[in-house]
């Protein structure tokens, strides 16, 4: 007989083993010793005769050790001693279970078939049904149940647990599950003590998506319902609510549990804390943390600590997350906890910290990274400037044997997409046997990140009609886009200012009941706003059943970009007065930007001085840059300069100095402009916009030699100005125009129409603003350059091809120049059309010769 070497041999001085010895060793978990004791009894029948009481516990030990050879040896022994079915089928039933747990379903089925029907009892069928469920043979498990009923054997709660698991995984499981529920009620299988069956029933309804049925079952009997005093039942209910996205109800259930005097355990908090992460309920998460700290066992529970780390990291409180991590002793940190902390750092962009912790996890703690680890490490590698050999980590993944893991493949695709190597990302995608929605979303996201928005939309169409063949199953129906797919595509529509495509996605979201999701809703609000459709943006915002801080921030920012400062500040005040969301750093950036675009100087300064005092938000470099912008646009350049000097010197001043330089261009302040430019040349020597702005300042002042020096400096440093590009969407197709270019198929007609508009504008009093041209050439040549700026060409094309009376919507990758701004005002009045022009900073709505910005931009 085979025996595993897991326990010390029996002392030589001990008495011969008996059936009681075998039972005792098995009960204490000394399974190898139990098998040796049985072997000793079988080898020396004269000393201690073998009886049928010794075999079942020995079989249980064989199953615990997953020792199929030992199970077969006991089977042979039972046959030789005629103990397999006599005096009861207890030995054959135990063997059936052991074979299944050892991975030999065929042996288990053969044993059942060889058992004469009269000798089969309820336990025989229970063992068979359990074995079939273990191997996911759900239909066969239900067939075995029917055979059990046909033979007249009574169902027990043990049977019910297995049957409910089978129902959870069958296509017709809802009907069968409800039938099983009715049968259990009729036969008293759900009385107060049968909490295992009750919990299995809850799990079945949850797996079948019948969460409301699970809730009715859970609350149906009030405090006297089965399991209402059992922490496992409460944990099951909280877990299934979280898994089905019912986060509010999960938190409410936890409060009800505590109110009824049921003490939460580690599983409770590990299940409930993710709900706080999804609902952005940091305060509730802290309450849970406080409860955990009061319990000596919970505070060092690795699963609870991992959930706390994840909760704090989700709320961008990585410092708090690290405190929790450090509170757990080194010996108590499991791999999941390391993963949670590494993921937390990666999620907030602290990539170097994530990589350092990853190195420490391997070198000091001795943990071997798993697929989950690498799914967080790979994005950190891709983003980190300090990590040079990014592709080397791909080789590391291959050496670790993870290259075929779906999560790792998705992370590798994401890494290569961020590096701009979309061909490599597509190659990895092609290696995935059956790409799921996450794989498709990863590739789609890569296209959007790299600006290949058209390719992203083509991939979405392809994923829905993708013909897949795997494991003999034809899945030609394709993959259904989910919330993440929509959230990925909508920013692409916003980038292109393509509302037609955005409306298609909105329609899909409505048809599939995804439009009420707070993340999709926020993305829709942002998309419509950035496409210039502010009324639609507000309509989506107002219809959302629940809004988070991101949703509010997006609309406040949108009002500011459209020059509606009063509306933006009214919305900010509404947000701060509500209990729905608390303002964060981005909220103040949005509000201050709105004040800047609308000339609300004093309101912006008041908000800046109150943010830390009244809202607990500390000013950041970006917020300081917003204040510089407010003062700079208003011509209060010395005050703006003082704000910058109050900041800590270094890279964090880049945004503020850049804003200051733009203000100097606007107000033609050469002295401060030179100071700002010199600082920027030191901090960002390869950023072309800094040189261009200084050239603009010199050109406007007629300092052509200085302007030429700056252009020479650009050439010497290899800095190239980003070419201006404008685009317009018509009939679902994007049309791009570059300044003076002729590559568009209808370029000749567009230039001809622009010439006609130019002549009409001049007859009506338009004069080109030649200060926008940086070169020292005569005014006629400057005017010729201005005539074919990209935004003018896009507007001309829109007037040629858009339906009569339709709004012309154009987007540009740079700031619109003064001359094009003035020209758009003239054109809007001449043709009687509204023109919406979005540049890199804001929106301009031109109508009847006026702009929404009031020429304050």
Automatic annotation (TrEMBL):
GO process annotations (BP): RNA modification
TM spans (from-to): none
Alphabetic keyword roster: Repeat
InterPro entries registered for this protein in UniProt: DYW_dom (IPR032867), E_motif (IPR046848), PPR_At4g14850-like_plant (IPR046960), PPR_rpt (IPR002885)
All residue ranges annotated as the DYW domain in the record: 765-857
PROSITE patterns in UniProt: PPR
Source species, domain of life: Eukaryota
PPR repeat windows: 121-155, 230-264, 334-369, 436-466, 548-582
Entry keyword Repeat: yes
GO molecular function, one term: zinc ion binding
Pfam families xrefs: DYW_deaminase, E_motif, PPR, PPR_2
Annotated protein name in UniProt: DYW domain-containing protein
Organism: Zizania palustris
């Amino acid at each position: 007989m085979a025996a595993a070497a897991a326990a010390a041999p029996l002392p030589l001085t001990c008495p011969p083993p008996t059936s009681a010895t075998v039972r005792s060793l098995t009960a204490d978990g000394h399974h190898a010793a139990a098998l040796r004791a049985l072997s000793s009894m079988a080898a020396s029948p004269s000393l201690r005769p073998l009886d049928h009481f010794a075999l079942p516990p020995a079989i249980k030990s064989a199953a615990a050790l997953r020792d199929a050879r030992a199970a077969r040896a006991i089977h042979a022994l039972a046959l030789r001693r005629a103990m397999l079915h006599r005096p009861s089928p207890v030995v054959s039933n135990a063997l059936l279970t052991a074979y299944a747990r050892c991975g030999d379903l065929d042996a288990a089925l053969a044993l059942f078939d060889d058992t004469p029907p009269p000798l089969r009892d309820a336990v025989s069928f229970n063992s068979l049904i359990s074995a079939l469920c273990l191997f996911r043979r759900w239909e066969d498990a239900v067939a075995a149940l029917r055979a059990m009923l046909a033979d007249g054997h009574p169902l027990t709660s043990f049977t019910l647990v297995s049957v409910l698991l089978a129902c959870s995984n069958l296509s017709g499981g809802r009907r069968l599950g409800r039938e099983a529920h009715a049968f259990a009620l009729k036969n008293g299988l759900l009385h107060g003590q049968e909490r295992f069956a009750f919990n299995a029933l809850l799990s079945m309804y949850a797996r079948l998506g019948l969460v409301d049925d699970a809730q009715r079952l859970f609350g149906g009997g009030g405090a006297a319902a089965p399991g209402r005093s059992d922490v496992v039942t409460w944990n099951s209910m909280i877990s299934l609510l979280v898994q089905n996205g019912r986060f509010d109800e999960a938190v409410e259930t936890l409060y009800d549990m505590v109110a009824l005097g049921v003490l939460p355990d580690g599983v409770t908090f590990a299940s409930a804390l993710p709900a706080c992460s999804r609902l952005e309920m940091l305060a509730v998460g802290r309450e849970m943390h406080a409860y955990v700290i009061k319990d000596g066992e919970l505070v060092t529970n690795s699963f609870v600590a991992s959930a706390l780390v994840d909760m704090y990291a989700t709320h961008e409180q990585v410092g708090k997350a690290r405190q929790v991590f450090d509170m757990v002793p080194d010996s108590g940190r499991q791999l999941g906890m390391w993963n949670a902390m590494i993921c937390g750092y990666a999620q907030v962009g602290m990539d170097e910290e994530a990589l350092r912790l990853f190195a420490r996890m391997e070198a000091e703690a001795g943990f071997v990274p798993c697929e989950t680890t690498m799914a967080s490490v790979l994005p950190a590698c891709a983003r980190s400037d300090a990590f040079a050999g990014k592709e080397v980590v791909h080789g590391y993944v291959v050496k670790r044997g993870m290259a075929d893991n779906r999560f790792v493949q998705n992370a590798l695709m994401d890494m290569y997409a961020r590096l701009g190597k979309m061909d490599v990302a597509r190659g990895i995608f092609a290696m995935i046997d059956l790409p799921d929605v996450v794989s498709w979303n990863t590739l789609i996201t890569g296209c959007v990140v790299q600006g290949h928005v058209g390719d992203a939309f083509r991939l979405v169409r392809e994923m829905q009609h993708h013909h897949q063949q795997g494991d003999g199953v034809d899945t030609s129906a394709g993959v259904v886009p989910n919330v993440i797919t929509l959230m990925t595509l909508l920013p692409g529509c916003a980038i292109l200012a393509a509302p037609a495509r955005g409306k298609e996605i909105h329609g899909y979201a409505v048809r599939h009941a995804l439009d009420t999701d707070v993340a999709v809703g926020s993305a829709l609000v942002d998309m419509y706003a950035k496409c210039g459709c502010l009324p639609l943006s507000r309509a989506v915002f107002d219809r959302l059943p629940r809004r988070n801080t991101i949703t509010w921030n997006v609309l406040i920012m949108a009002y500011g970009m459209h020059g509606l400062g009063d509306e933006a500040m009214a919305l900010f005040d509404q947000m701060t007065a509500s209990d729905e969301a608390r303002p964060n750093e981005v909220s103040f950036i949005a509000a201050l930007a709105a004040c800047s675009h609308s000339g609300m100087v004093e309101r912006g300064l008041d908000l800046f001085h109150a943010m830390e005092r009244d809202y607990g938000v500390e000013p950041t470099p970006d917020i300081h840059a917003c204040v510089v912008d407010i003062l700079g646009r208003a011509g209060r350049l010395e005050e703006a300069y003082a704000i910058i000097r109050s900041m800590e010197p270094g890279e964090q001043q880049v945004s503020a100095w850049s804003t200051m330089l733009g203000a100097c261009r606007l107000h033609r302040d050469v002295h401060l402009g030179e100071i700002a430019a010199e600082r920027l040349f030191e901090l960002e020597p390869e950023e072309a916009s800094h040189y261009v702005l200084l050239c603009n300042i010199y050109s406007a002042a007629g300092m052509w030699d200085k302007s030429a020096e700056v252009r020479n400096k650009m050439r010497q440093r290899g800095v190239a100005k980003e070419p201006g590009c404008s685009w317009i969407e018509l009939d679902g197709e994007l049309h791009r125009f570059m300044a003076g270019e002729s590559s568009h198929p209808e370029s000749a007609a567009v230039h001809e129409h622009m010439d006609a508009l130019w002549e009409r504008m001049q007859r009506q009093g338009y004069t080109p603003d030649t200060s926008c041209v940086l070169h020292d050439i005569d005014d006629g040549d400057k005017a010729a350059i201005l005539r074919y700026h990209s935004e003018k060409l896009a507007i001309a094309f829109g007037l040629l091809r858009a339906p009569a009376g339709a709004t012309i919507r154009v987007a540009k990758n740079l700031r619109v120049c003064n001359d094009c701004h003035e020209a758009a005002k003239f054109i809007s009045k001449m043709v009687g059309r509204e023109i919406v022009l979005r540049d890199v900073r804001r929106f301009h709505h031109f109508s009847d010769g006026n702009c929404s910005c009031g020429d304050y931009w």
